[in-house]
Coenzyme A biosynthesis bifunctional protein CoaBC (Campylobacter hominis), 392 residues
Amino acid sequence: MTRKKILLAVCGSISFYKAFEILSELKKENFDVYVALSEGVLKFVDYHAFDALCEHPVLCSKTEDWQEGLNHIEYAKMDLILVAPASVNTINKLAWGVCDNIFLQTLIASDAKILIAPAANEKMLTNPITKNCIHILKEKRKAEFIEPVVKKLACGDVAKGGLADINTIIYAVKRAVTADNFYENKMVVITGGPTIEKIDDVRAITNLSSGKMGRALADAFYMLGADVTLISSVDFSVPYKLIKFDSSIGLKSALDSIRFKENSLLVMAAAVSDYTPRSRYKGKLKKEELGDLWTLRLGINNDILSSIESKKLKKIGFKMESDQETALMSAKKTLIIKHLDAVCLNILDSVVKFGSDDTKITFITKNSEIKLKQAPKSELAMQIAELAKSLF
């Protein structure tokens, strides 16, 4: 992430303490974080508590100092404002332009993109007046709301009013500052993880794929604003749609269920077994019955990627090779045989291996070969997403 300036605006919600974790996570993501506190939150905590975590002076009614640049005009000059947790009081006042304190003055003075993560009693949030104010903020201010979650609230009710999960909030922030108009609402489907081809009820043929590259790619396209679906054999907690599969048949079934839109993108990063057992045994095979030597019959698997034919979408495949001398030729052959628009080539070495966090990739099309240097998979995923734009 580039070092973007973010104002974390904290309201007087009972969940104010989660703002400490949000602040910490934003700093880990290399954001330049500023903090503004409402009058309400000062009833719960002293501003010095945030001062201890923040690299900049905390703005509130007790600290305002025009001589030092600690005022609502300076703190309005941000790349993004995150109101979390957001109280109903602040939501309603902001919608109607009320700025009777330094906190609201800062929000009103800024033209930065604004994310609002409410945390309040459900009846307060669903009150017609509040709903109207939320509508106003969405329409007039182009504010984006991070939906609250169902949980047991401070009042004892179990309802939709709890602050969204911290990871969901961080995802929303990263998406807000990296969104690319090219990918806005573009349908992108990514597959990831190993296939698990069962032999009997307890044994299977699989591989060492971790699913990390698929997850990194899905994250990258989501951050850029795409409508993402991740089809994965590895379970992840993500803010976009996740479809689980186990076997190659399950993967094919999941892909067949997708209704691709015009100009969609399919990125096939799943490690699909080349061979599958010819017979599936019920129960557990016993070694006493199999003997000292057991011959397992395998048959070549169906080529899932080649079977997906649609003029609506572009297709990117992944190819892993171990021979440096023949890898490029093999990848180019795959490009043609499987009717792909691009191939991401991995060549196994001390860095490129299953489960690693870093990798190296050569992005191959019919007309080019672009080598992406060793980097974390999250960084390479963003580079791949940028290169994929040239396919359309």
